[in-house]
Design brief:
Blueprint: E1 11-15, E2 20-24, E3 31-37, E4 44-49, E5 55-59, E6 64-69, E7 74-79, E8 86-91, E9 97-101, E10 106-110, E11 117-121, E12 131-136, E13 142-146, E14 150-154, E15 161-165, E16 172-177, E17 183-187, E18 192-196, E19 203-206, E20 215-220, E21 226-230, E22 235-240, E23 245-250, E24 258-263, E25 269-273, E26 278-283, E27 288-293, E28 301-307, E29 310-315, E30 320-326
Antiparallel strand pairs: 1-7, 2-3, 3-30, 4-5, 5-6, 6-7, 8-9, 9-10, 10-11, 12-13, 13-14, 14-15, 16-17, 17-18, 18-19, 20-21, 21-22, 22-23, 24-25, 25-26, 26-27, 28-29, 29-30
Length: 330
């Protein structure tokens, strides 16, 4: 595809596709599953809800950031630049989507109004950081991870960026922030989670009790407990920094592969299971799992996010977004 120069506006498609929906049988109240087809071959990946009700999503294979309107299933694609391969997207304090843009080794901001793309490139010495996920701290500083073994921070106001070497080298992956402002990440290759000191950028490793578990992504609940998706073990685990404790639960099935994790506004935990081709809801109170298998093989949902009553993910294998909606109090 022809791509415009970065720092320019590049809306490359406005398409409409009716959302597909089906009811999901669940043990703990009714849910509705809806699918939203997007551009074929784009590799729909990480998603995040915007304040206006739309959903931003990454097209890792075609170098775009998409914006879905769930009301009618229409979407727009914004070209992020030559060689772009976006991984993660979050909404900043300014209401704009911010993207970890691995293809150009940069952080990208997309203006939600005119779709202008602004790039903040990593230092040349970090030639390929393999950028992954990010969070904004309470001071508006953007923190990010790269699987090459780095984490970093960007001041959006000044453009100042600092990159730090993560302890134990490569693997730095999923990231989260707690309600009180603590920043954590997971290291997939390093088999640990770590807490970042925002003042120094140093990270302190915390070891999960399951060896070689493959901690992939993390998400904080409302109490500041850190939930971890363990790719190698098939567990979802929880670390409570208040007392240093850990608990772990094996996902159902013969060969669970826990990829993504997200904690909703009710402190219910959602994970994706590549082994079962499903999104799975876990209730920490009852310790029950509820599975929502995809209606197509090879969904490969690599990230989850949401807003009250809705959990969102991108089926990177099928180029669809999927929403699981709670249609009654659960």
């Amino acid at each position: 595809m022809n791509r415009r120069q970065f720092l320019g506006t590049a809306v490359i498609g406005i398409l409409a596709a009716p959302a597909l929906s089906r009811r999901a049988a669940a043990q703990e109240g009714p849910f509705r599953v809806k699918y939203y087809p997007v551009a074929a071959g784009m590799g729909s990946r990480d998603t995040t809800p915007a304040p206006d009700g739309t959903i931003w999503f990454c097209g890792q294979r075609n170098g775009t950031l998409g914006r879905l309107d769930p009301r009618d299933g229409s979407y727009k694609l914004v070209d992020l630049g030559k060689g772009a391969a976006p991984h993660g997207v979050i909404i900043g304090p300014d209401g704009a989507p911010w993207v970890t843009e691995g293809g150009q080794n940069a952080i990208a901001r997309v203006d939600p109004g005119d779709h202008k793309v602004t790039l903040f490139r990593l230092p040349e010495k970090e030639a390929y950081a393999n950028l992954n996920t990010a969070v904004f701290d309470k001071n508006g500083i953007y923190w990010f991870t790269g699987q090459s073994g780095i984490h970093g921070r960007l001041d959006p106001k000044s453009g100042d960026m600092t990159v730090f070497k993560s302890p134990r080298g490569r693997g730095t992956y999923g990231m989260t922030i707690t309600p009180k402002g603590d920043i954590w990440y997971a290291s997939l290759a390093g088999n640990h989670i770590a807490k970042i000191d925002p003042a120094t950028g140093n990270a302190t490793v915390v070891e999960p009790p399951t060896p070689s578990q493959g901690a992939r992504r993390v998400w904080s609940d409302s109490k500041g407990r850190i939930w971890v998706s363990e790719w190698n073990s098939g567990n979802v685990s929880m670390h409570d920094p208040a007392d240093g404790s850990w608990k772990a639960w094996k996902l159902p099935g013969s060969n669970p592969r826990t990829y993504a994790v997200y904690v909703d506004d009710k402190d219910k935990v959602w994970v994706t299971d590549f082994g079962a081709n499903a999104i799975v809801r876990f209730d920490p109170v009852t310790e029950k799992f509820t599975a929502f298998p995809s209606d197509k093989a090879g969904a490969n949902v690599r990230q989850l996010d949401g807003r009250p009553g809705e959990t969102w993910g991108g089926e990177s294998g099928n180029d669809r977004l999927v929403m699981i909606q709670t249609v009654a109090p659960a």
